[in-house]
């Protein structure tokens, strides 16, 4: 039971992912020149970035073919990152607003 | 009996929301005590009853009991919901000053409190308030974070640099109550205390007027300087009798040869004193830390008054 | 590693009593310790360092208490006092309690309980010890250079403006953070990949479950502390101003960052202690643990919930009302899984065969003291009450009850429990019991009065105080001496037990069932002389002990692969 | 698990592992967990970024204008390229193509250096006009009371990222030396694989930094 079982990623996937990444980069830059109303400009940019991130993680880092636990580790880190941001924003965005029950 | 215990372990009840806080405090204590007692009794009882008799005692296999598990999930769950709701309700009161509250501006400095009343009167470390009327404090810090705490009122709020925070209270009657700083702020943190004097509203109005008149009087420079010495909190760090408190004493300071921490030395003439007050970090006297706040917001006249006062301390 | 045990022939491996060869004499000389990759030796080195720093922290605490004898100055000035409590807090938290149970006892026993020869990355483990020592050096350096006077929380803007050695101290803590992270990574991977054949998740000892939950917190929270301290260092050196209102920054944001780590960190401190208690209560009651899965999973529940409540340290900091309320609400939910643990432990004792040996005695004290600490935590989580109690001695008493009464008492329980396994020697039971009672009394005399004075409004971090509090402070100070006396007794009888000859321990003095007891005392270099196989849950006391001593027939752990490993430059990971 | 007693054909098996698959999986899981810590490490800075951006949207808009989109975009492409080359290096190792491992590693190192050189030019052009972090900030082109804050965050984020790039280069140089010594082959390439994972993460973080710092409209 040794290492030749490791999945060798097909060349076409690697090149395809790279191409996809370049295209998405061009799209990202392009989108920044288009007037998109606020929050949506940021959302578009982030959606594109997440698309790119998924490509890197899934193909380059081989998560598609890998043990599920590794994917879970990555997702967990994101979950906690979002918790950190989300809960902090509950403070910083609502500082000058008293809680609705008050008054 | 609970009441007696409370009086022993809690400060006096002197504001409108203190009683509610104490009520929740008691509730949690009693509930906890009951559960704790249950646990302790069980432990002791089991240890005695099921004491090991021999090395090959056989014990039953009990892995799980849904009813029990549910019981000790649900009862605590109910208790915490009560505690949350109660604390939350109390907190609403604490965070919503009535709109007719009397407003006082508070400035926290290392290590003294300045109170500014609507008519411009200022006091240091002494807060006068009309008894029985809601008072709202609008607070800001001039340097690091401090925290305004009056145990008798159950009021506490951090005071931040660069931003206002507020607190409010309404006393139940006249009285004197101690103020503590409860956010660690350096050498003088434990000395950063003060007093709230709740006095009858009429008395308060009279006091306010009197202070206003006093402040408008033409005073000799040195006397004005002495007032500022008290008001601006210099007294917290600089003594007049030669003792070192946090900073060097003012006694004999004028025209003295001062040794700097960097080895240089300077004569404490008027220029030096002005600089030391406005920008104390420029020249650090040896043996001391660079902790004195700058007073560049004082007017030229005020600085001169202080200098005149320092000159008198020979 | 899901191993189908049926592929192998298994047989019982009797345990060798008082072996001639074991990990302690497998090699000798200072170098054989400092550069060892044996998890057991690394564990012991951690243990020694941790005990050393506990004494440093303890001496600082005695100094604190002594200074508080008189309302004004007793024997040190305000600046010294401020440095002393900062160092006490920082040493106790970062150098003692965070590494304490995981890095010392965990390192020693995690691989043994899994039937593994070592942790997954032994070199990383050694590196982690060295990083810890290196970080500790920075801390000592900052003590030598005037100390730090910010409090262990390093709140800005005070920490960016004070003239003390903040940078070297925070750098030290930053570095030690990596040690904590590496230990966490090592443990997670070891638990996932190196369990003995047959050891499914449902057959893991609860100490492993607790270390696993702890490792998850370490891995997720510690990096945030690292970035926080890095920002603080940048703030002091370059004035980046992210936390400085003068440059557009916000000091409250610092507190979010700090507590995002430091609240979960309190569960780094306590969850491993829970693990020890599970082992001990079951063993000394000689009874299957009650609610195995609930105890196991509640560790994970605590770990997860622990990430959502950090703002309860900031109720009066000026954060928004919305977050204040949400944090308060979530805070209480940690109490539920914790309570489940406590009550399951109590239920385990029911109809047991209870033997009040020293570890069990400590475990009972733990239950009592930690419950008080936990309930007062609930008190502090209640919004309106917190406003009154925040930053008073009530908080000081709360966290000493959970950290000292909880973690330290559990740590003591663990040390006594595993002492025979680690050293091969038995301590004096009578003296151990006397010491535990002295500690218990001393502890309560020290910290109960602090609840009272805190409720009355005595603020913490106060070098001087108003006279009203003097009696309570003096009682507390006297208590701290009783504590000191207790620790001196512990130190003496443990040291004696090491050097006396007559008290050799058997391999399983308590009649426990977990794997580490199925090896000799002290264990051999490779933990077991065979590859252990697990059939039962480690608390199945009704199964014959021989079924816990199984191993793969013909397997020989002695020198399998070792020659190869030594000649090859083994890879780093 | 079948070969508990297998004689170690793979010389890289450390003594405490049962077989090389266990060892490989362990290393990989270990690396992934390390990457988790990296995500949260950078995560702190992203939180700071988001909080300050929500407070000062105008400032972020004005400040981002100072950064060169072209340079940022080029660097993005460079990093994506380097991710591809290191993935190819892993592939080469899996396929036992010794020479290709070296070749791709060199390509990755070169691309990483290109990234740093471009970053260097970006930094110096900012320094030249007084755009420095925090207190050192002297630039007057942005009319906003909290003007330094954007660039403080910018320098912290890109600086930390840059340090990761430098560490990555160091690791790859080490791999290159080892490859030349013939240490890696189809049976054993764990170090290449986990370094590649690390490098991809460096790329991942840049993928987020680029739109957040350079492309604010
Ligand atoms: C080991 C460390 C440890 C542990 C385990 C805890 C556990 C808890 N802590 Fe504590 N805490 C600290 C260490 C710890 N804490 C430290 C160091 C500080 C101060 C830091 C500083 O400022 O310097 C602090 C401060 C602190 C505060 C801030 C106080 C302030 O500054 O204003 C709060 C507020 O909510 C709090 C709450 C809690 C709660 C709810 C728990 C819960 O986890 C407790 C849960 C346990 C129980 C509830 C008991 C058992 C349960 C039952 C028997 C079932 C029945 C239960 C119910 C009915 C609820 N803690
Ligand atoms: C693990 C954590 C831990 C532990 C175990 C302790 C243990 C103790 N702590 Fe501490 N403490 C903290 C963590 C801890 N503390 C923290 C985080 C703070 C907050 C700091 C801050 O505000 O920033 C704090 C703050 C703190 C204060 C408040 C200071 C203030 O706010 O002004 C006090 C005051 O009483 C105190 C006392 C004690 C005492 C008496 C012990 C005792 O339990 C100690 C018992 C140990 C010994 C007595 C040592 C035994 C040694 C000997 C007997 C000497 C023998 C020597 C030789 C043979 C050479 N601690
Ligand atoms: Cu001001 Cu403490
Ligand atoms: Cu907490």
Describe this structure in words.
The complex is a heterotetramer of chains A (103), B (314), C (573) and D (217). Chain A is built from three helices and no strands. By secondary structure, chain A is mainly α. Chain A has two domains: 53 residues; 29 residues. The longest helix of chain A has 25 residues. Chain A is flat and about 55 Å long. The model of chain A has no long low-confidence stretch (mean pLDDT 85). Chain B folds into three domains: 78 residues, Helix Hairpins (Orthogonal Bundle), CATH 1.10.287; 114 residues, Cupredoxins -  blue copper proteins (Immunoglobulin-like); 91 residues, Cytochrome c-like domain (Cytochrome Bc1 Complex, Chain D, domain 2), CATH 1.10.760. In chain B, helix 5 crosses helix 8. Chain B is elongated, with a radius of gyration of 28 Å. Chain C is mainly alpha-helical and 573 residues long. Chain C has a single domain, classed as Cytochrome c oxidase-like, subunit I domain (Cytochrome C Oxidase, Chain A, Up-down Bundle), CATH 1.20.210. Chain C contains 17 helices and two strands. In chain C, helix 6 runs antiparallel to helix 7. The longest helix of chain C has 36 residues. The N terminus and C terminus of chain C are likely disordered. Chain D is mostly helical and 217 residues long. The chains are: A mainly alpha (103), B alpha+beta (314), C mainly alpha (573), D mainly alpha (217). Chains C and D meet through helix 6, helix 7, helix 8 and helix 17 of C and helix 1, helix 5 and helix 6 of D. Bound molecules: heme-A (2 copies), dinuclear copper ion and copper (II) ion. The site of one heme-A has 32 residues of chain C, from helix 2, helix 3, helix 14 and helix 16.
Short recap of the structure:
The complex is a heterotetramer of chains A (103), B (314), C (573) and D (217). Chain A has 103 residues and is an all-alpha fold.
Task: Give keywords.
heterotetramer; A: 103 residues; mainly alpha; 3 helices; 0% strand; flat; D: 217 residues; Four Helix Bundle (Hemerythrin (Met), subunit A); 6 helices; disordered N terminus; binds heme-A; binds dinuclear copper ion; binds copper (II) ion
Structural class by helix and strand composition of chain A: mainly alpha
Shape category of chain D: elongated
The radius of gyration computed from the alpha-carbon positions of chain A, rounded to a whole number of angstroms, is 20 Å
Helix content of chain D: over 70%
Rg of chain D is: 21 Å
What is the end-to-end distance of chain D? 56 Å
Bound ions, cofactors and other small molecules, one mention each: heme-A, dinuclear copper ion, copper (II) ion
Calculate the mean pLDDT score of chain A and round it: 85
Largest interface: B-C, 88 and 89 residues
Strand content bin of chain A: under 5%
Q: In total, how many domains does the architecture of chain D comprise?
A: 1
3D shape of chain A:
flat
What is the total tally of β strands of chain A?
0
Largest β-sheet summary of chain A: none
Specify the biggest β-sheet of chain D: none
What is the fourth-level CATH superfamily of chain D? Cytochrome c oxidase, subunit III, four-helix bundle
- Classify the beta-strand content of chain D into a percent band: under 5%
